[in-house]
């Protein structure tokens, strides 16, 4: 749908789990939009009971503990509040919730506004694999419902080419209506200090080590190696994961740390370890926020997937869990200073640049011919 040459943007997300993580993403987006002088509003809805303190957060009543009935009430309220907020907006970006029938209500209320769904994964495939006991059923239902829920929407935004292409195909969108909007970070802090020692130190950072992090694969690889190094795990681990680390003195468990403590460990890091098992979500390409955090701190990255960096980007390597390859990369990068890594990464991960780029693409695609 056509809109004005300088559109007003609304980006809406809702989070029940990992609200602080999503809030941080939305905060950085709002910062980037403000820095660019754009009329852009980022809003994160959370259940009042699970409120995350943030300037972008808008709590809504959920009716107590989020069982199925409360979940439905929460999603319905999110849709209603989105309809209210989009009254003076031209383009609405809506982070896609699987199997949410309220999306049809948003389309009906939007009239001539431009609506795009925002996707961070291949929802149906992820549900089938990671959705618990009824995952296969939920995945099949999502595959059937998505084209109906998003009928009449104007486009999709994916954080990777793989995700955007998948959504474009399943929704049978016209060409030029799928956009790439990778995760990024705000460059407001300096790079980490450099206190690297003689022994390679690897940092693996996660809020929790979910299956797509691939910690189990890494632990198996570590157990089969006699190399000398230190592996720092930052984040929540299950009892089973803790038990898997207990017998190896090369592994240090830190739990969840405040930012200063994380920076202290990053100062010692030779490399940062990103996700190692996104294939479990049927993804070969990903752009995790922690990869951007590592690089903004000046720490090179190893991972188990392709990212959106160009082929000649020197400080990101798809090694999988091959310990010898990880350590070879660590030694190769040992003499590279933090500022060099950070500045090489900046064009690809700076949130200001990413927001400006998406805004320009949306204007080019949806601005009316007479503006």
Q: What this model shows, in words?
A:
This protein is α/β, with parallel strands linked by helices. The chain folds into 2 domains: 193 residues, Rossmann fold; 149 residues, Rossmann fold. The protein is 40% helix and 18% strand. It contains 13 helices and 13 strands. A 7-stranded parallel sheet has the order 3-2-1-4-5-6-7, sandwiched between helices. Strands 10-9-8-11-12-13 form a 6-stranded parallel sheet. Helix 1 crosses helix 13, helix 2 runs parallel beside helix 3 and helix 4 runs antiparallel to helix 5. The mean pLDDT is 92.
Brief rundown of the structure:
The chain has 371 residues and is of the alpha/beta class.
Helix-strand layout with pairing:
Layout: E1 9-14, H1 19-35, E2 40-47, E3 57-60, H2 68-85, E4 91-95, H3 103-110, E5 114-119, H4 123-130, H5 135-149, E6 155-158, H6 161-171, E7 178-180, E8 201-208, H7 215-223, E9 230-236, H8 239-245, E10 251-255, H9 259-268, E11 271-273, H10 289-296, E12 301-303, E13 316-318, H11 323-333, H12 338-349, H13 351-366
Parallel strand pairs: 1-2, 1-4, 2-3, 4-5, 5-6, 6-7, 8-9, 8-11, 9-10, 11-12, 12-13
Helix pairs in contact: 1-13, 2-3, 4-5
């Amino acid at each position: 749908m056509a809109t004005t040459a300088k559109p007003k943007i609304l980006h809406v997300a809702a989070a029940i789990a990992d609200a602080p993580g999503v809030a941080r993403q939305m905060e950085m987006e709002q910062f980037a939009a403000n820095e660019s002088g754009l009329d852009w509003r980022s809003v994160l809805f959370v259940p009042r009971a699970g409120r995350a303190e943030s300037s972008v957060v808008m709590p809504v009543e959920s009716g107590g503990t989020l069982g199925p009935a409360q979940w439905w009430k929460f999603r319905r309220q999110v849709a209603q509040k989105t309809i209210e907020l989009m009254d003076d907006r031209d383009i609405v970006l809506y982070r896609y919730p699987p199997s949410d029938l309220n999306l049809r209500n948003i389309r009906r209320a939007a009239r001539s506004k431009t609506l795009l769904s925002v996707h961070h994964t291949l929802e149906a495939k992820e549900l089938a694999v990671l959705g618990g006991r009824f995952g296969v059923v939920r995945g099949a239902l999502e595959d059937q419902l998505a084209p109906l829920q998003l009928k009449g929407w104007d486009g999709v935004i994916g954080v990777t080419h793989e995700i955007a292409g998948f959504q474009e195909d399943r929704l049978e969108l016209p060409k030029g209506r799928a956009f790439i909007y990778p995760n990024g970070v705000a460059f407001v802090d300096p790079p980490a200090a450099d206190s690297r020692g003689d022994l390679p130190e690897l940092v693996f950072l996660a809020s929790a080590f979910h299956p797509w992090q691939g910690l189990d694969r890494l632990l198996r690889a570590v157990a089969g190696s006699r190399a000398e190094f230190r592996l720092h795990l930052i984040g929540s681990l299950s009892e089973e994961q803790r038990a898997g680390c207990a017998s190896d003195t090369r592994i240090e468990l830190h739990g969840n740390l405040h930012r200063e403590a994380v920076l202290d460990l990053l100062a010692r890091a030779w490399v940062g370890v990103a996700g190692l098992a996104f294939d479990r979500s049927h993804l070969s390409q990903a752009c995790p926020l922690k990869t951007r955090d590592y690089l903004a701190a000046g720490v090179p990255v190893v991972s188990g997937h392709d990212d959106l960096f160009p082929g000649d980007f020197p400080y990101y390597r798809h090694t999988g869990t091959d310990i010898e390859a990880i350590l070879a990369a660590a030694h190769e990068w040992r003499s590279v200073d933090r500022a060099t890594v950070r500045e090489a990464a900046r064009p690809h991960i700076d949130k200001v640049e990413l927001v400006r780029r998406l805004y320009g693409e949306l204007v080019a695609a949806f601005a009316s011919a007479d503006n």
